[in-house]
């Protein structure tokens, strides 16, 4: 059977045009288009035959702005512990951790560490680490599919783990179940230039 070169060309073009988007138009995103992105994400592969992750949508802009405030406040605390001569660099680096603040939608990829091998080999730290890393690798595949699906719909997106420096505060704000962790925050919306096109 021949390779499907049309499929490859389409995928390559999407991968090539995808760039992290950090400035969003305020045009709201329909639930339907967000669902299209999630539908693709849900097809992601997963380690150990266990689909222990989910994607949640946050579209309440007050919550999104509060999340940015929370991350900023946490970075301010961290900054006090940064070497004085590096504080300015830290400050400008940390600005990227709140790039989601103008996004109309945040997708939260969440995962749960479900011990299996580490139960069988109780106390083996190497196995426990391997198991946890597997779940993080699985959730990263989910994020990648979200980014490609977003680009295929001409949406802007940015996968962000910087905000997770304030993981516990964000988990409380987003009401993430105790057994779960946030893998990434993915800002989603129309790219800013869309506004100019009406
Ligand atoms: C795991 C991961 C975490 C990231 N975290 C952030 C982040 O916290 N803030 C941000 O602005 N960009 C973040 N990015 C986006 C990267 O900065 C971006 O992908 C990289 O600079 C390459 O640029 P491009 O996506 O436009 O090709 C992250 C990307 C990945 C894969």
Plain-language structure description:
The chain is built from seven helices and four strands; from the N terminus they run H-H-E-H-H-E-H-H-E-H-E. The chain has 198 residues and is an alpha+beta fold. It has a single domain (20-192), classed as NADH Oxidase (3-Layer(aba) Sandwich). A four-stranded antiparallel sheet has the order 1-2-4-3. Helix 2 crosses helix 6 (125-152) and helix 3 runs antiparallel to helix 4. The radius of gyration is 19 Å and the shape is globular. It starts with a helix and ends in an 8-residue tail after the last strand. The relative contact order is 0.23. The structure holds flavin mononucleotide (FMN). Flavin mononucleotide (FMN) binds next to strand 3.
Query: What is the CATH class?
Result: Alpha Beta
- Compute the average pLDDT: 92
The strands making up the biggest β-sheet line up spatially as 1-2-4-3
Helix content: 40-55%
Structurally, the number of domains stands at 1
Largest sheet: 4 strands, antiparallel
CATH topology: NADH Oxidase
Shape: globular
| Class derived from helix and strand content | alpha+beta
N-to-C terminal Cα separation, in Å? 44 Å
Short key terms for the protein model shown above:
single chain; NADH Oxidase; 16% strand; binds flavin mononucleotide; alpha+beta; 46% helix; 4 strands; 198 residues; disordered C terminus; four-stranded antiparallel beta sheet
